[in-house]
Specification:
About 40% of the residues lie in helices and about 5% in strands. The chain is α/β, with parallel strands linked by helices and about 500 residues long. Among the domains are: about 15-185, Rossmann fold (3-Layer(aba) Sandwich); about 190-260, Helicase, Ruva Protein, domain 3 (Orthogonal Bundle); about 270-360, Zinc Finger, Delta Prime, domain 3, CATH 1.20.272.10. The strands form 2 sheets. Strands 1-3-4-5-2-6 form a 6-stranded parallel beta sheet, sandwiched between helices. A two-stranded parallel sheet has the order 7-8. Helix 2 packs parallel to helix 3 (about 85-90), helix 9 runs parallel beside helix 11 and helix 10 runs antiparallel to helix 11 (about 230-245). The longest helix is centred in the middle third of the chain and has 18 residues, at about 230-245.
């Protein structure tokens, strides 16, 4: 069953012996001294819980459930180690209810019906309410979930179900509508750190026999990712290694060896954050896909916010790949959406796919430099009034002001482009965009001179980033696109396919 992430920071409470006074507790064995550390550190009452403060307010459904104040059927939805089984143990300690626990991994319809029938008989004879805890309830089939409906509806049983999957997709609507849905969140780093320190000193934990180095503690917190069970399991393994070595201090080296995960020197708020991010971007820009994947992996292992990584990739797609591969922006944006929609750890694959695409794509910063040059002119005060032909002519009186006069509609020309002034007077003939000639932008570089020549009504070759483009027999030396002169039909300079 799922373990817990809600632990006591206070003095350890003494659990009632064999759940004294309760009518029955099935499938939850008492905690022994040799039990795993996460199990030993479970709280005995709700006031000892740490985390999920949004569910712990007075009168909240969670308090009612644990205190036995209401027969509410509840579905607990949260990631592993967020406290679902801890809550189940607290409910099991209630003195006026019979508690039965089962796992959807092993139980079937027959088992569920047997519990319901027993609960119905006890209820008819004046016995106590039965609380049925089902772990991993999303693994129940529709038929198995259907078998619960009537008993939950008439409160023959109070259902307490736990799931790591989105219940709106994994649990049938009739059952979901009969329950209160409580969403549990991963614990933050501060809470995980506090609980690790408590486990080191608490009599139920290491009882002060060992100390935990700060860097080792940092590693355990980072490794946990909000899952306290994972943190405490790793702490227990590190403590066993330290004891075997005959030392009384758990240092970073011992912790790394015990959990077989190297500590990543990475501070999300410090220099390492910016240095690794910079290396990540520069590796993609330099088309070193292997280095880019390394820096991605380092950020992911260190617990960097995947949304931050995705945002940087979306920016990179236009800043450094641009029109050399127009699909790069779509790929990066899709990866960012996947991070939001799927989440980690699965979205790591989406990020990796996008990194490979961006790093291996042809590169062009033409969009970046073009926008920068245009903005520099605007800030310098260049750029006059909007040409009259381009002004809005849709409102009454606009034509009388000359708005729209002389405007030529490009679609009326068979080439789809016409000679017309679009720029302000003092920027006519200014070139901002200079295509790189890499990847897909190569065809743009071949087509752009002709477009500019027609739009500007020029009779001479226009300038290119590498100087004027010479004309050889009416075509560029590369043989791509028309450079000027009459086409084979005797018309103006060639067809323009945009």
């Amino acid at each position: 069953m799922d373990s817990d992430a809600l632990f006591s920071l206070g003095a350890p409470a003494v659990a009632p012996s064999a759940h004294a006074g309760s009518v029955g507790v099935d499938d939850f064995a008492s905690v022994g001294e040799d039990a795993p550390l996460p199990v030993r550190m479970r709280p005995a009452r709700i006031d000892e819980l740490v985390g999920q403060e949004h569910l712990l307010a007075p009168g909240a459904p969670l308090r009612q459930l644990v205190g036995g104040g209401a027969a509410l059927s509840v579905i607990l939805w949260g990631p592993p180690g967020s406290g679902k089984t801890t809550i189940a143990h607290l409910v099991a300690r209630a003195t006026d209810r019979r508690f039965v626990a089962m796992s959807a991994l092993t139980a079937g319809v027959k088992d569920v019906r047997a519990v319901i029938e027993t609960a119905r008989r006890q209820r008819r004879s004046g016995g106590p309410q039965t609380v049925l805890f089902i772990d991993e309830v999303h693994r129940f089939s529709k038929t198995q979930q259907d078998s619960l409906l009537a008993a939950v509806e008439d409160r023959t049983v109070t259902l307490l179900a736990a799931t790591t999957e989105n219940p709106y997709f994994s649990i049938i609507s009739p059952l979901l509508s009969r329950c209160v849905l409580l969403t549990l969140q991963p614990l933050d780093d501060a809470a995980v750190r506090a609980l690790l320190r408590r486990a080191v000193t608490d009599p139920r934990g290491l009882a002060g026999a060992l100390t935990l180095a700060t860097d080792a503690e940092d590693h355990l917190v980072r490794l946990a990712g909000g899952d306290v069970r994972k943190a405490l399991t790793a702490l227990e393994a590190a403590a066993a290694s330290a004891t075997a070595l005959g030392v009384d201090r758990i240092d970073l080296a011992t912790t790394e060896q015990a959990v077989d995960v190297a500590a990543v020197r990475y501070d999300r708020d410090g220099d390492a954050h910016y240095d690794v991010t910079s290396a990540f971007i520069k590796s993609m820009r330099g088309s070193d896909v292997d280095a880019a994947l390394h820096w991605l992996a380092r950020m992911l292992v260190a617990g960097e916010d995947a949304r931050f990584i995705a945002r940087r990739m979306v920016i990179f797609a236009s800043e450094d790949v641009g029109l050399a591969d127009p699909s790069a922006l779509s790929v990066a944006t899709a990866a960012a959406h996947a991070v939001e929609y799927v989440g980690l750890p699965e979205a790591q694959l989406n990020l990796a796919q996008a990194v490979i695409h961006l790093a291996t794509a042809p590169k062009s910063n033409s969009a970046t430099t073009a926008l920068g040059a245009a903005m520099a002119d605007v800030r310098a005060g260049r750029g006059g009034a909007v040409p009259r032909g381009l002004r809005d002519a849709h409102y009454s009186g606009a034509r009388g002001l000359g708005h729209g006069t002389g405007y030529r509609y490009p679609h009326d020309d068979q080439r789809g482009v016409v000679t017309q002034q679009y720029a302000p007077d003092d920027l006519v003939g200014t070139d901002y965009y200079r295509p790189s000639g890499h990847g897909a932008e190569r065809s743009v570089a071949a087509r752009l001179p002709l477009l500019r020549r027609i739009v500007r009504g020029l009779s001479t070759p226009v300038s290119r980033p590498d100087g004027p483009v010479p004309v050889v027999n009416g075509r560029h030396p590369t043989g791509t696109g028309h450079a000027g002169g009459a086409d084979e039909d005797g018309g103006d300079a060639g067809e323009v396919q945009q």
